[in-house]
TrEMBL record:
InterPro entries: AAA+_ATPase, ABC_SmlMolc_Importer, ABC_transporter-like_ATP-bd, ABC_transporter-like_CS, Mo/tungstate-bd_C_term_dom, NA-bd_OB-fold, P-loop_NTPase, PotA-like. It is found in: Cell inner membrane. This is Spermidine/putrescine import ATP-binding protein PotA. The complex is composed of two ATP-binding proteins (PotA), two transmembrane proteins (PotB and PotC) and a solute-binding protein (PotD). One of its GO terms (cellular component) is ATP-binding cassette (ABC) transporter complex. SUPFAM superfamilies: MOP-like, P-loop containing nucleoside triphosphate hydrolases. PANTHER family: SPERMIDINE/PUTRESCINE IMPORT ATP-BINDING PROTEIN POTA, SPERMIDINE_PUTRESCINE IMPORT ATP-BINDING PROTEIN POTA. The gene is potA. It is an enzyme of class 7 (translocase).
Length: 374
């Protein structure tokens, strides 16, 4: 792929942020869709807004694009307020899930459409369209029509059409949602490569946790119109701030519990069933006088089999209740004498087959147990 860096048609400013949202609200018919969002997206960042359907993420993207106006607050791009600036005058371009290509136009004409509206000189138009198609590896199919292209090829054309206008920000609205699983994986890799080569800020909305984790420099997780946490993929997954995030991002074992006393660097929590679990201390322990928490343990952090290590705080005997083989890994469910059922994910490294009904020991470290606010 070409190493061309898109030259952005936007005035230079001294701000380090390409997109800023300040105390942004959006209300529809008395219902608040977006609540008091503060957000800073850095220049050249691949930033994802992640959350379930109806959480307000697409509304947030549409306010950046200019398709919706905030009920309150302010949207800035490169330090300039976008109040009353229509979509076509904003230095952004949007790639929609449906691609929104013109069926009666060739690939070339689809990409050139925006430049023609701006009365771009013919020689410059040809150069910019050619560069954009080359970037997404569609230059050899420039004379085809959308109906003659695969879903992945149409996706590339939609990206080329967005990039040809040299935007400050490319907005991606569920860009891979219409593709099958294998093609979606391929396009994730291509999007990452394209972003790195171009140096343009990408802002993506998605409900796909794996997609956000694999593509993003940082992620904002939304729930019921609010941002619950912003962080790197590692921070979001390994250090979720809330039980919602722990449960929404990947898989976890969540158990209501009550904190006991601090001993050294660990805290004992007791579940409603009486199971005692050692968890790592957080600021939560000083700020939550009721001591009611949800303990979260990622299934892949749990080991099967016995251990003699004195450093392992949490170890329990149980019975293997369910085994689900999934090729490169296996899902296990282990029932403890307390009645708690713990889910365990293990990579398949040997041909050993564990059977339901077998007695089994599970263990994990206190540092892999998180106590989260109820």
């Amino acid at each position: 792929m070409s190493q061309t860096v898109i030259q952005q048609d936007v005035a230079e400013t001294d701000t380090m942020f390409d997109v800023e949202l300040r105390k942004v609200f959006k209300v529809y018919n008395g219902e608040t869709a977006v609540r008091n969002i503060d957000l800073n997206i850095r220049q050249g960042e691949f930033f994802s807004i992640l959350g379930p359907s109806g959480c307000g993420k697409t509304t947030t993207l549409r306010m950046i694009a200019g398709f919706e106006e905030p009920t309150g607050g302010e949207v800035l791009i490169r330090g300039q307020s976008m109040a009353n600036v229509p979509p076509y005058k904003r230095p952004v371009n949007t790639v929609f899930q449906s691609y929104a290509l013109f069926g009666h136009m060739s690939v070339w004409d689809n990409v050139a459409f925006g430049l023609r509206l701006k009365d771009c000189p013919k020689s410059e138009l040809q150069q910019r369209v050619g560069e954009s198609l080359e970037l997404v590896k569609m230059d050899s199919l420039a004379r085809r029509f959308p109906a003659q292209l695969s879903g992945g090829q149409q996706q590339r054309v939609a990206l080329a059409r967005a990039l040809v206008n040299r935007p400050t920000v490319v907005l991606l609205d569920e860009p891979l949602g219409a593709l099958d699983l294998k093609l979606r994986k391929e396009m994730q890799l291509e999007l990452t490569t394209l972003h790195r080569d171009l140096g343009v800020t990408f802002v993506m909305v998605t409900h796909d946790q794996e997609e956000a984790l694999s593509l993003s420099d940082r992620i904002a997780v939304m729930n019921i119109g609010k941002i619950e946490q912003i962080g790197t993929p590692t921070e979001i997954y390994e250090q979720p701030c809330t039980a919602f995030i722990a449960d929404f991002i990947g898989d976890t074992n969540l158990m209501p519990a009550e904190l006991a006393t601090l001993q050294g660097e660990t805290v004992e929590a007791t579940t409603r069933s009486g199971l005692k679990i050692w968890v790592k201390p957080q600021a939560l322990f000083k700020e939550n006088p009721t001591r009611e928490v949800l303990v979260s343990i990622r299934p892949e952090k749990i080991q099967l089999g016995s251990t003699d290590s004195s450093e392992i705080a949490n170890r329990y005997d149980g019975t293997l209740k369910h085994v689900m083989y999934l090729g490169n890994h296996t899902h296990y469910q282990v029932e403890l004498p307390s009645g708690d059922v713990i889910t365990v994910f293990q990579t398949n490294r040997s041909s050993e087959q564990l059977k339901p009904g077998m007695p089994i020991q599970i263990y994990w470290s206190a540092s892999d147990s998180l106590a989260l606010p109820v």
